[in-house]
Amino acid sequence: MSVDTLTIPTQRVQQSRLAEVDFSNIEFGKVFSDHMLVVDYKDGAWQTPQIMPYGDMSLSPATSALHYGQSIFEGMKAYRDSKNGDVLLFRPLDNLKRLNLSAERMCMPDVPEDIFMQGLEQLLRLDAAWVPSAPGSALYLRPFMFATDDFIGVRPSATYRFIVFTCPVGAYYNHPVRAAIEPNYARAAEGGTGFAKTAGNYGAAMMPARKMQEKGFHQLIWTDAREHKYIEEAGTMNIMFLIDNKIITPAVSTTILNGITRNSVLRLARDLGYTVEERRVSVEEVIEAQDAGKLKEAFGVGTAATVAQIAVIHYNGTDYELPPVEGRDVSNKIAAELDKIKTGQVEDQYGWTYRI
Ligand code: COI
């Protein structure tokens, strides 16, 4: 199969649900578009992809992903071109690359580029009307793959299912984030799966996150598993600080997700003339910078969250109130530039947008 020739058999919905959706008030991840892409892997090969109505699936109780967690996913977004209404997908090949890195770590098969790209393209053409155009909104795409053997011996599954469904979304956080530095639990350890987007990383984060939420914080800031001394990520996002007029962010490693929004923000920051440092960032450095009035901005970056301002950092019993989010010229400027590229308001000199 080549990217040009793959025509995906499509079963359309009889009646679109689009008219039922209140686009002015969408909770993240609760509303699903009409169709989904489904591709099965068996006998060592990907089978013919299909597009079908979004809906429930029937699975064996022994489905191995449910027991041993061979399950990986991606998050990506499609936007409306503000000039002509075309659908623009943001950096899909980078998501495919990361999906396949996750697949390798979890002993799962690669998803071929033609299936991924043609699948996305045909799915988005069919559900183009679901791509919102209001500022801050997008169509979120959730590609994922899970092990489907009905077998509970512990070994890599021989069969898998790859699905892409989509959701119109607004902002993931519609308020500045109160974040707490996690001093005990760890998200990832060296040699583990921290760099992979695998379901278990998120499941394991829920209890520590819940504990912090009960104390009034929206997100955790994870620290390294060995010493809890260095900052890693902020919950579902990478994290960045503006200290002494430099954008400082933990370097990606085997324990940190290599975020596509992270990469885009850093590229734009450099091109806008800001100094960027990707390196280890200790908790002490951030707290000392805050005490000295040198920490001007802190923000999370991710596909779902885009650029999410952090208003408060809690550490060791103290709430550190950061400067007001309205005056955060650096992150707000980069976020605005990124948004202009994603929505076709400026020329995309990076080749990040993929026109459907
Ligand atoms: C994304 O930003 O797309 C993510 O994967 C975070 C998600 C778990 C909501």
From TrEMBL:
One of its GO terms (biological process) is L-valine biosynthetic process. Pfam families: Aminotran_4. The modification N6-(pyridoxal phosphate)lysine is found at K197. It catalyses: L-isoleucine + 2-oxoglutarate = (S)-3-methyl-2-oxopentanoate + L-glutamate; L-leucine + 2-oxoglutarate = 4-methyl-2-oxopentanoate + L-glutamate; L-valine + 2-oxoglutarate = 3-methyl-2-oxobutanoate + L-glutamate. Keywords: Aminotransferase, Pyridoxal phosphate, Transferase. GO terms for molecular function: branched-chain-amino-acid transaminase activity. NCBIfam families: ilvE_II (TIGR01123), PRK13357.1 (NF009897). This is branched-chain-amino-acid transaminase.
